[in-house]
Structures are given as structure tokens and as C-alpha cells.
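Researcher: Checking consistency across runs. Here is GTP cyclohydrolase 1 type 2 homolog again:
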Amino acid sequence: MPTLSEVMALLDGWYPPATADSWDAVGLVYGDPAASVSKVMFAVDPVLPVAQEAAAWGADLLVVHHPLFLKPVHGVPATTPKGRTLATLTAAGCALLTAHTNADQAVGGVSEAMALALGLRDLRPLLPAAAGDTGPLDKLTVYVPAAQADAVRDALADAGAGRIGDYDSASFSSPGEGRFRPLEGARPTIGSVGGLEVVDEVRVECVLARSLRSRVVAAMLAVHPYEEPAYDVVELAPAAPAATGTGRVGTVAPTTLRGFAERVAEALPATAAGIRVAGDPDRRVERVALCGGAGDFLLDRVARSDADVYVTSDLRHHPVSEFAEKDGPALIDVPHWAAEWTWLPVVEARLRTAFGEAGGDTVDTRVSTTVTDPWTFRI
């Protein structure tokens, strides 16, 4: 039977806590990392009915999307909603873990799960994750006598070359032979004028921010022993588009707005609130943008996109009214809980498969059957 820390390691690998927004509260809320885990339940909201369902089933771990403690509290007495939820879990010995904005952006995360549930193809992030602040990259290649290779590598690193993510001093070296003949007027470091020389050399390669090109080349030339060093600088092509990021954009077989809205209603779990649509029912829909959860912060980006419709939750009256005046994509507002629920079967299957492939350790999994959408009926 795996430990809680082993289950957390898998979830953290798929949905790294470091990728959560700065205001978020993700990770282990309650539980002993050394405790054994045989049953894991997944839900959107950490509310009392969900805690009671987890306790009745005998869950050792409840994984939720929304944080129980997003804002600071001074206590959790059982006379409060949060306190009752936590008291129910602690009495049942059930740990609690949150994966929120770190699960929103990830491959296999909330928005991607929602997109696949709606039948979207050719997915890419609506707002790609930042690729870092280095900007465009170059690659420098220089040939240097083996005895002086360390000095050149050190100079390149000191000038800022070879920085990749959380690493510095990154380079690649390969041995070879350098051949040259110094001509009249040369002042060779090795050999003599008129003589053909063969020298054991090292090819040193490293990447660098393009903004550092002049600085890095100057640093290399300052320590290189040759009068005329052989080197080249190549501009690297941009990296492939990020697979992670906020929201998703994809395509569906051409349909009408009404037809696509009906597909959305069929794909999402039923709620009393249903879905709302802003746009011409007969409008052609092929390109779809979406964001799991509250996505009105992306309206400006969607307006500049080629999407025919944007699907998200918690849209407000005035932003929607102004958006419609821009003659942009149609809008479909879906219940927040229903949109994010689509992730639960995905992460449940992922965990079950991971432990099944590991062999030996088995974990029972369950997606909560409790509807936690706050709206209970409509008149």
C-alpha cells in the first residue's frame, strides 16, 4: 500500500505546486505524509457533503480542486462550514489535498479535460505559459586547445552563457584535431610561421540569451589563447509553443452556435442552472476557446483571437454586454462546478493507471457523486 507522500509525489509531478498562481493555496491541507493510502476520492469542492461522502466510503485521501483555506483564518471550530468539513475528515482519518491553479494550466489538467469532454481537437493553450525571461537564444561554438578549454568554459559561464532554467555553466564539449598553417605576419601561440600544425582541440558549445551575445563573445576572445580563434554564433529558432497554459483553443466539426451549445449541455454533468448563451443561434462555430472555472479575465484575449465561441463560467452582466458590442466570438456561460468536474475522471484514471503499472501497490479510486453546484433549482 503506498504512502500519502508517494501519492502526493505523483500528483505534484503532474500538477506542480510551483506553477500555481501566487495568491493560491495548494498542496497538502491535512494529513500525515507517512500514512498509508488505499482509497482516494476526487471532488471539486471541499464542503461538508463531500467530506461526509469521503468518510462514509472510508477514503484515506480526498483530492479537491478548490482550496478549503484560500484566505487566512484564525480558527476552524466545528461551528463553521470550514470547521465542520475539516472535523469530518479528521475524525475519519482522511487527508485533504488541493490542486487548484496548478491543475488548471497543466497538460491533463482542468481546461484540457473540459476541452476533450466537449470534443475539441488540435488543442493549444489560449494563454501559453511563460517560457522564461531569457528571450531569443543563440548558440556559440568555439574551438580551443584542450589545455585551455576549462578557462574558456569558465569565461563563458561568468559572462552569462550556459544558463538553462534552474541551471548555469551548461555546455557541451567534444574532442578533435585542429589544423592550421601560420602565414607571414602571424604571431602564433602554437607552432611557427610556415609550419603546418595539428593540435588537440575541444569543441565547446553553449546557449546564451541573444541580448548577451556581445558580452559573451568578448569574454571568450579575452581568454582564448589563439590570435585568430575559430568560432561561430547561430541564432536558434523559437522554442515550440508551450503545451501548458491557461485555457485551451481547439476545433470542432462545423456546426451552429445552438448545435454546439446543445453539445456542451450534453457533455457536462447536469445542474439546475443549466447554461446561458450570448450570440446568434445560427452562427457558424468551428473554432472554440474555453477556460475551466471563472474565465472573464481572458475576455480581451478572446476578443483578439479567431475563436467563434468562448466557453467559461461566472460571466457577469456588464462585461458580457460590452463584449457583445465588439462583434467578437459568441459566449457560453456554464456552471463553474460542472466545467471543472470534467477533470475528476481524468485525474482519477491517471492515478489508478499509475499504481496499476507500478505493480504491487493498489489504490481504490472514486469520483465524488455529490453535486456541489450551489444553485439547487430554477423558476
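Researcher: Does this match what you'd expect to see?
Model: One thing to look at in this run: The chain has a mean pLDDT of 92.
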